[in-house]
Amino acid sequence: MSTLKIAIQGGPASFHDVVAQQYFAGQAIEIVPCMTFQRVCAAVKNREVDFGVMAIENALAGSILGNYSLLQDYPVSIIGEAYLPIEQNLLALPGQSLADIKLVRSHPMALLQCTNFLEENPHIQALESADTAESAREIRENNLVGVGAIASKMAAQRYELEIVEERVENYKENYTRFMIISRKPLADKSQANKASVIFTLHHRAGELAKILDVFRDVSINLSLIQSIPILSRPTEFAILLDLEWEDYTTFEEAIGLITPLIVEMKILGIYKRAKK
Asked: Which of 42, 105, 123, 202 is the residue whose CA sits 20 to 30 A from 191?
């Protein structure tokens, strides 16, 4: 069995690592850490890896709009999705209490998920970093006393840190949605029942309503609708839709019907819907 190379944002014991291990369970894989989401997309595009894993949406912090822009700009395709329950914990070197922690580091999305905890502990300064697990690694490697990381229990185990406070996320029903990306679209669409589509419209009243009417008429469900800023045109937006269906032919029909109504469109991916 050949080894698949999987690019992830972050390092070992990050949430992206957990998703990669679960999604590709039963296959030989090699994790390729990347410090940015753009680097993940570039690694897939440049054939440095077989697949990439990137977070796209969190139940508490919302959509990662920049990642939708990357999926639009790079020649990659979504071939799958995964949902991971997220438990955030405050980690530090052994023997420290909450009062000893003066600085906490983590990924911006993780910090956003823990704003209540940070508000309740004003003596702790929050500092953004590239990754949850990498923040934990740096504490161990540099023996940083008084510094904490918000990360997973796996990161605590890997880097031999103590959990000072468990479950510091704002809400316990916390999950993150991840996309699995590839250079090529999903080959076998027989099991596919979901797609992510991004498009721009003419600037006329009612144009979006026409598109939504088409999907309603062919019984396609919209599980997400999101406006995405167009960076090259600051006052304009693209529309992102997640579409779900029971019969793939209805999706094909709907795409045919909306194509004359839009300015431009990219199907970011067609894939099988994951369970939360």
From this structure: 42
